[in-house]
Amino acid sequence: MGQIVNPPGDDGGDNILPVDLKAALEERYLAYALSTIMHRALPDVRDGLKPVHRRIVYAMSEMGLRPNAAFRKCAKIVGEVMGNYHPHGDQSIYDALARLAQDFSLRYPLVNGQGNFGNIDGDSPAAMRYTESKMTAVAELMLEGIGEDSVDFRDTYDESNSEPTVLPGAFPNLLANGATGIAVGMATSIPPHNAHELCDAALHLIRHPDATVETLVDFVPGPDLPTGGIIIDSRESIIESYKTGRGGFRVRAKWEVEDLGRGGYQIVVTEIPFQVQKSRLIEKIAELLIARKLPLLDDIRDESAEDVRIVIVPKSRTVDATLLMESMFKLTELESRIPLNMNVLSMGRVPKVMALNEVLVEWLAHRKDVLVRRSQHRLAVIDRRLEILGGLLVAYLNIDEVIRIIREEDEPKPVMMERWALTEIQVEAILNMRLRALRKLEEFEIRTEHENLTKEKADIEALLASDDKQWRMIEVEIQDVKKKYAKATELGRRRTQFAEAPEADLEAIQQAMIEKEPITVIISQKGWIRALKGHVADTSSLSFKEGDGPKIAFPAQTTDKLLLVTTGGKAYTLGADKLPGGRGHGEPIRIMVDMENDQDILTAFVHDSSRKMIIASTAGYGFIVAESEMVANTRKGKQVMNVGMPDEAKLVVPVSGDHVAIVGENRKMVVFPLEQLPEMTRGKGVRLQRYKDGGISDIKCFSMEAGLSWEDSAGRAFNRTKDELLEWMGDRASAGRAVPKGFPRSGKFAG
Would you say residue 165 lies in a domain? Predict the structure, then answer.
């Protein structure tokens, strides 16, 4: 429980009221959340502005800073906004004002700035006392009709003034300029779009109010970002984002290859993704270059002046430009995802995530509301003027009598009202008339004005009575905006293009992100792995943990993938660049992959996707498997051979030639054609050789033409030709015959 202390009263008590802390906090936090959502972070769907931006634009309009007026110091504008409408910090107001002037932040800036308003490198604007600004034509469009009762006004924070709750918004600002904001428990993120396309979509919606998002995407194919770039999403994913109001767009930098002659080239980036700071982007790429994460890249330079120009120098002229850029897109902000979350204040009150068609429909409804209110306001003005003109006509028709009454009567007003049944307003107008207005010509002008106004009144009444006429009028207004910001104009041209991402080999991109260096992979008997730099031929001098020793050693490159096969018939994949260094004893493989405790490493080798392997179990079962089928993308690995205890995977041998020789632990050998072995992706396999006791010892693939060769333990080479192998030739799964003379005692083909 908290306590609230009231000012002491006359009763002598201490005036302390107990308050439930939980209830008080909830109530106050809710009030804060609502104020953040409604009056700070979310834009209004009708004019696309948050309160601070609306107040800046309105204050500039009140100060007369129209596009054709002179510039005024930003400090003066900020002072006006803060003093009259927005009781918050001057820096926050100036930041918002500066952003409205940045052509790399807003697709259609609302403020025309003079001076340093920041840049795409992320530098801050100059202080407000140095910069000057005024409204742009877009801001003027947003305010069109503000003085004609087109929108509601409310009291300002100190009730000394009034401000609009929303602007008339003749420009589709919400989508054209986008918005971002984080409120309490909700956020908004809308990228900028092309005004020409939005006007086309709105015109289509006027004629077909039930148009689907799919149809509207024909007009608005996607965002149009101030900084250009290339959107690489599919049409389906863009439609899905616009339908739900949530999603995102992948935007890439625009680049081209510049020929340097003699086969050399460099890549020039001319447009970078929206809201990416150029200096930070280049710093990040330089850091990756130093960390040797971009082996295809030699250097990066920023040669930008007014336009963006980032030069990327490849390592050598043989480097594939697409591959280099794909690796950079993967690692840097040269490709970034721009989120879409169309969470806006519907009708200025309800936060709601809207689809593309809903946003445009609400904007059109607002335009119609503004049109009706402006028309009614004009009608009231006409009625007042007609009333005055009616009185003036009476005066002209009876001019002598009017002059007589004014000269002779003490109170001419009631006399004239009674005499010609005039209203007080009409008599006031007559009495305020100048003597020089008594010319005959003036009467003619009044009659003309009366006729014109009567005609205009009839037109407005017809407009207010007909829904169709109202929509036609809105069509004309939107057509005007479209013409002003057409794609043929410099400001209106589409800056962001669309393209499919090139089909690049993921494998190749992966390799392009790793520096290629020779290494020697060492695996110990107890399953520890490490990578020595360079190709080390003699590994005998290596030290191991006590009770451990060498098991497997083979050369590789850091760009290689390694395949590890366990006795449980599982294959695991490791990137050679991810292995621990050669200092120390390395790391246990079990940390890197999820291996079962009762299994051991059987073998490991460099992955070659074009190769096939024979995998065999102790009991003499086996099959052929393509190496590409053994690659596993997760720590869990991939089950290749199904084995159950006590049987386990024993041999993994590369496939070559056309025959297979198999030796059992019983020193019997059988030779049969390779085609008798099935190719599978997973399974137990088929019987290779039959045993009464013991299991398999070794397998060798060979070409019958070259014969079967082996080495004994003394290093002597033996070879058996086709004719000499006849007695061992048979079918798969036969028992075979005793090994030929000179076969190694170890039962292995390699002595």
Answer: yes
Kindly state the helix (H) or strand (E) to which residue 408 belongs, with its residue range: helix 399-408
Whether the per-residue pLDDT at 553 is higher than 90: the answer is: no
Buried b (16+ CB within 10 A) or exposed e, 484-506: bbeeeeebbeebbeeeeeeebee
More confident call, 418 vs 435? 418
Q: Please indicate, yes or no, whether residues 526 and 475 belong to a single structural domain of this protein.
A: no
Output the domain CATH number for residue 153. Answer: 3.90.199.10
The residues annotated as belonging to the active site are: 130
Q: Please choose, from the candidates 179, 213, 176, 225, the residue with its C-alpha nearest in 3D space to the C-alpha of residue 482.
A: 176
Query: In this predicted model, which residue has the larger pLDDT, 206 or 11?
Result: 206
Q: Please give the model's pTM, rounded to 2 decimal places.
A: 0.75
- 727 touches 653 (CB < 8 A): no
Work out the number of other CB atoms within 10 angstroms of the CB of residue 217. 19
Q: What percent of the chain has pLDDT over 70?
A: 95
Q: Which two tokens stand for residue 515?
A: 């520096």
Residue whose C-alpha is closest to residue 81's, from 71, 69, 90 = 90
Among 148, 169, 190, the domain boundary falls at: 190
Q: Per-residue confidence at 3, pLDDT binned at 50, 70, 90?
A: low
| pLDDT(628) > 70 | yes
Closest CA to 298 of 324, 331, 272: 324
Say if residue 590 is in the same domain as residue 701.
Answer: yes
Tokens of residue 654, six digits: 């590369």
Q: Cα separation of 376 and 366, whole Å?
A: 15
Domain CATH for 395: 1.10.268.10
Rounded Cα–Cα distance for residues 288 and 60 (Å): 46
Residues 6+ apart with CB under 8 A from 724: 707, 740
Could you tell me which residues come within 8 angstroms of residue 626 by beta carbon, excluding any fewer than 6 positions away?
Answer: 611, 612, 679, 681
Tell me how many degrees the CA angle 396-397-403 measures, rounded to the nearest 5: 60
pLDDT at 374: 94
Question: Is there a single domain that holds both residue 715 and residue 653?
Answer: yes
Tens of pLDDT, residues 448-486: 989 999 999 999 999 889 999 999 999 999 999 999 999
d(CA 443, CA 394): 10
Residue 617 CA, distance from chain mean position: 51
Answer whether residue 375 is part of any domain.
Answer: yes
Report DSSP letters for 150-183, one per residue. Answer: -S-EEE-TTSSSEEESS----S-HHHHH-EEEE-
Burial class (CB in 10 A: 0-12, 13-18, 19+), 306: exposed
Strands 497-498 and 230-231: parallel
User: By C-alpha distance, which of 555, 563, 637 is closest to 602?
Assistant: 563
> To the nearest whole percent, how much of the chain has pLDDT over 90?
45
Task: Identify whether the C-beta of residue 611 lies closer than 8 Å to the C-beta of residue 630.
Answer: no
Q: Are residues 450 and 535 in the same domain?
A: no
Q: Phi and psi for 644 in degrees, rounded to 5?
A: -120, 145
Q: Strand (E) positions, 320-368?
A: 335-341, 343-346, 350-353
Neighbour tally for 481: CB within 10 Å: 20
Residue 404 one-letter amino acid = R
Domain match, 480 and 518 both: no
Domain count of the fold of the chain: 3
- List the domain range (segments joined by +) for residue 580: 514-738
State the burial class of residue 151 (Cβ atoms within 10 Å of its Cβ: 0-12, 13-18, 19+): buried
User: Omega into 192 within 30° of 0, i.e. cis?
Assistant: no
Q: Are residue 519 and residue 478 in the same domain, yes or no?
A: no
Tell me the helix, strand and coil percentages in the chain, rounded to 5: 35, 25, 40
Which pLDDT does position 369 carry in this prediction? Answer: 94
